[in-house]
């Protein structure tokens, strides 16, 4: 099954750990706070457990949404605008 995972996390270090966990489970970044990819049921359970563990340290406003996308719906996904490579730094850039 294909999934889209979106998140809103306030703390940089926690956001980075969540991003790393999503990548470790084979998902691909599609926007700054959105990943997509295919997960077998066992992988989905593993991902959910890892994310729940990370969210124990969260603030009241942090959240993660996992959305299943069936094959028929996946075929109807539309990308509007320019497709661009998304680069995310693990640490902030400093300008002097």
CATH topology: Alpha-Beta Plaits
Count of extended strands: 4
Mean pLDDT: 86
CATH classification class: Alpha Beta
Radius of gyration: 14 Å
Chart the SSEs and their pairings:
Elements: E1 2-8, H1 12-24, E2 28-31, E3 34-38, H2 41-54, E4 63-69, H3 71-75
Antiparallel strand pairs: 1-3, 1-4, 2-3
What's the quick description here?
This protein is α+β, with helices and mostly antiparallel strands and 96 residues long.
Keywords:
single chain, 96 residues, alpha+beta, Alpha-Beta Plaits, four-stranded antiparallel β-sheet, 3 helices, 24% strand, disordered C terminus
Overview of this protein structure:
- A hairpin with a 2-residue loop joins strand 2 (28-31) and strand 3 (34-38).
- By secondary structure, this protein is of the alpha+beta class.
- It has helices spanning 12-24, 41-54, 71-75; strands at residues 2-8, 28-31, 34-38, 63-69.
- The model is unreliable at 89-96 (pLDDT under 50).
- Strands 2-3-1-4 form a four-stranded antiparallel beta sheet.
- It has a single domain (2-71), classed as Alpha-Beta Plaits, CATH 3.30.70.240.
- It is built from three helices and four strands; from the N terminus they run βαββαβα.
């Amino acid at each position: 099954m294909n999934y889209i995972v979106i998140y809103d996390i306030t703390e940089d270090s926690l956001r980075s750990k969540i991003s790393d966990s999503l990548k470790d489970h084979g998902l691909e970044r599609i926007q700054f706070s959105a990943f997509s990819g295919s997960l077998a049921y066992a992988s989905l359970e593993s991902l959910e457990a890892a994310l729940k563990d990370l969210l124990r340290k969260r603030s009241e406003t942090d959240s993660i949404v996992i959305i299943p996308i069936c094959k028929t719906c996946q075929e109807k996904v539309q990308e509007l605008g320019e497709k661009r490579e998304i680069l995310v730094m693990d640490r902030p850039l400093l300008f002097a």
